[in-house]
Amino acid sequence: MNEDILVQREGPIATVVINRPRARNAINLAMWGEIARVTGGLVEDDSVRAVVFRGAGTEAFASGADIKEFPESRKDSETAQRYNAITAAAYAAVRECPKPTIAMIYGFCMGGAMGLAMGCDLRFAAEGSKYGIPAARLSIVYPAEAIGQLVDLVGPAYAKDILYSARTVGDREALAIGLIQRLVPAAELEATTYEYLKLVADNAPLSVRGSKATVQAYLAGYTEENRARLRALSLVAAASEDYREGTRAFLEKRRPSFQGR
Fold it and tell me: CB 3.0 to 4.6 Å from 66: which of 28, 111, 178, 226, for a disulfide?
């Protein structure tokens, strides 16, 4: 495993750590590939019910892509195309993860790290955190899917503002425009994040997964294929052991114990 990307486990919750604190957790090309790989592995692990993405330490979620690599890794259109394919795979792995995901953000969340954080379902942040997409200062067109996520979160006008100006957005503004969903003192961020996900992990996994799939299908636009897939998910949940357990627990006035099947 790449030591710059770590996976930690606590019960049903997995944490993917961007582990380059000396470089403000800047993400190099190898790390982008590793993010895609480990996320795919967590998707396949039935014991994992939720995933947290975070940076090591409290100075930065990540300062973005490692621009020091660009003179080699993005030196021309051919290498840029390869680089973009690898980063796109990382974004897609996070965005398409069927399990609940949270970006736990301390400090700076910039550039490519914004794409990673926006790919998560929710963003919980510490006071003092900062956000930005400085692509306009590098003559880079930010990936279409990531721009789409930004528009979904903050609306087209704010998305244009952030992209055109390449300015830094402060924590209060980020909360006000919907870029982040929780803003708490830094000392409370870990507890807030993991307590929330423990609540989620106690719920029926098939129901949570179905809810996520339905929201994603709505944002993508309902198609007959999407509707058929969602109907199938609903039928699987209705025929599941967890449905019977949830009904029994409700009638018996006790806490249900869901197994994800």
Answer: 28
